[in-house]
Amino acid sequence: MKSEAKVDLEKYGECSTCRCGRAAADTEVFLMAYKAWHLAAMEEHGYTDTSDGLVNRVARYLAKSPNDTIDTAEFRRACIACSVDPDSFTQSDLDQLQRKLNQIT
């Protein structure tokens, strides 16, 4: 069974994902199909760049801290260690981070 992108390459001569316009002969497509539970597990453990994934990544890092309270400097260090922009967190993200920390600690 051919993937949808592979069929589009053969039929239309361009990538269906990004519509880069490359000819089918010049393009190689590597796709990996994930099931819904794979994606949920990846997000739960912070392996995705979705908002929830980034919050989970930082929460898992902070859960290893011996401190009971997290100050701003420690939060920023955790974000940087996790390749997350600390300034991108909204108040709802911080609330979600707090709930996640309460859940896993």
Determine the fraction of residues in helical runs and give it as a percent range: 40-55%
Mean pLDDT: 74
The gyration radius over C-alpha positions equals 19 Å
Secondary structure class reads mainly alpha
Number of domains: 2
The N- and C-terminal alpha carbons lie at a distance of 45 Å
Explain this structure to me?
The chain folds into two domains: 1-33, no CATH class; 36-104, no CATH class. Helix content is 52%, strand content 0%. It has five helices and no strands. Helix 3 crosses helix 5 (91-104). It starts with a helix and ends with a helix. Residues 1-31 have low confidence and may be disordered.
Structure described in brief:
The chain is mainly alpha-helical and 105 residues long. It has 5 helices and no strands.
Task: Fill in the keyword field for this structure.
single chain, 105 residues, mainly alpha, 2 domains, 5 helices, disordered N terminus
Secondary structure layout plus pairing:
Blueprint (H helix, E strand, L loop, with lengths): L3 H9 L23 H9 L6 H13 L8 H10 L9 H14 L1
